[in-house]
Each structure stands twice: as structure tokens, then as C-alpha cells.
């Protein structure tokens, strides 16, 4: 069992697809996961977009549409509660491209793999809010040119976003938690090894991840059970 956390401590939380699974969004690597139906090389690389942009847009258009049919679950709400009620700072870093953390109320949030509800212009570089399908002739709201929008998603071979800010937070946090992520994709899978000695590290996941052995504590269970219980534990002062 870990010792109590200082009340002004920084808590950094990394989330992955498992946190949104019980909202109805498929994870990537489960037997029924997204990468079972689609090859990464076909839909999630810059080369795939050059080869067949229509296929890539269709894949992300479908993901964007699904977002309208789902809602945040108890795990998203518990993390938003932690940010509201914790006396120190909470930084949430998500690999997820859905907006369920925001909808639950999280504010100090980094989408390191991009966001489904944003598009990026290949001509002027602007990133804009985008809630509908990106079509072949969709116009950039900033430079007005047609046919130059791509999903604002970090594809394989591209650099995740805000890594400097994340590294700085990892170096000074007192608690690092990883929730619902399989530990297959770097750099996120390596965050647990970037914290200072003495940092409390905890993994909350349905099963053991690829990097479980790097954590001091592992809790196996569904995010909607495990995360609210963990948040309650953090917010309850030891009597
Ligand atoms: P994965 O699909 O690799 O892993 C999801 C993890 O969540 C697995 O370890 C599951 O056991 C766990 N899980 C499933 N249901 C759960 C539940 N109800 N409660 C708790 N845990 C549950 O997804 P990620 O690790 O997020 O990147 O994948 C990382 C990145 O790989 C993604 O951001 C995406 C993908 O390729 C890009 O597209 C760039």
C-alpha cells in the first residue's frame, strides 16, 4: 500500500482506450478491437493518407459519428471530480481522440494523440473545430481552400503532441497513474519510467499491461469500478 499523498502534490494521469470502452467505444487491441478490422498501415499513417485519403477519411468520419452516440462513464466523471476536488494539481494526459473527458468536465487535459473533433489544414497549418464528416472538397475555414483538410490525429510515425509539457509534469509529479492502456505504444508506455524515484505509480486496467511490472501498484478491474474507488481513496484524508 502506498503512503498518503501530500495535499499540494501534482497527480499525472495517463488514459487509454480502456477508459472509454464502457461508454461503447471499441479499444484498439482487443479481439473485437479496431485494429482487428483495419490495418494500421491502411488507415493510421501519413503514407496511408497519401495513398488513399478517402479510405482514411472514411475511417475517422465513422469514429467521429460514433461520438454523438456515446456519453462519458463513471470513470471519466471520477477523474473530473478528482481535478475539481484535489487540493493540488491534476494533469490528465489522454491517448484517446474522443471528447469524453471534456464532456465529463476535465479541464487540465492534453490530447497527446490528437482529437477527432478537430481538423488540420495541410496548406495553412491551422487547426480548427470540426464536428461533421471531412469530405473530399471540404473547405478550410481559415484559408478557404478546398480539399486540404486532414483529421487532427497523430498517426504512426508522427510526433505526439505537447511532449515537453508532459515530460516536465512527469518529472515533478508525486503520483502517476495509467488507466485503460495496454502499454503497447511509445512514448506513452514509457511514461512510468520517466517519473522521479519515490513517485507513487499505479496502473488501473482490466488485465495486466505490457508494462505492469514497472508500476508499484496494479489494480485489475473495470474502469467504471476501479477509477471511482481510487479517486475516493485519494480524496479521503486518512483519519
Ligand atoms: P489498447 O486497445 O491497446 O488497450 C486498451 C487497454 O484497456 C487494454 O489493456 C484492455 O485490457 C483495457 N481495457 C479494456 N476495457 C477496459 C475497461 N472496461 N476498464 C479498464 N480497462 C479496460 O488501447 P491504448 O492502450 O489506448 O494510437 O492504445 C494506445 C494507442 O494505440 C492509441 O492511442 C492509438 C492506438 O493505435 C493512435 O491511433 C496513434
The count of strands amounts to 9
Instruction: Write out the distinct hetero groups bound to the structure.
Output: 2'-O-acetyl adenosine-5-diphosphoribose
What structural class should be given to the helix and strand makeup?
A: alpha/beta
Assembly category: single chain
Give your account of this protein's structure.
With 239 residues, the chain is of the alpha/beta class. It has nine helices and nine strands. It has helices spanning 18-21, 34-37, 40-43, 46-51, 53-67, 74-85, 100-104, 163-172, 223-235; strands at 10-15, 89-94, 109-111, 114-121, 127-129, 149-153, 175-179, 200-205, 217-220. The site of 2'-O-acetyl adenosine-5-diphosphoribose has 24 residues, from helix 1.
How are the elements arranged and paired?
Elements: E1 10-15, H1 18-21, H2 34-37, H3 40-43, H4 46-51, H5 53-67, H6 74-85, E2 89-94, H7 100-104, E3 109-111, E4 114-121, E5 127-129, E6 149-153, H8 163-172, E7 175-179, E8 200-205, E9 217-220, H9 223-235
Parallel strand pairs: 1-2, 1-7, 2-3, 7-8, 8-9
Antiparallel strand pairs: 4-5, 4-6
Condensed summary:
By secondary structure, the protein is an alpha/beta fold.
Features of this protein?
alpha/beta, 239 residues, 9 strands, binds 2'-O-acetyl adenosine-5-diphosphoribose
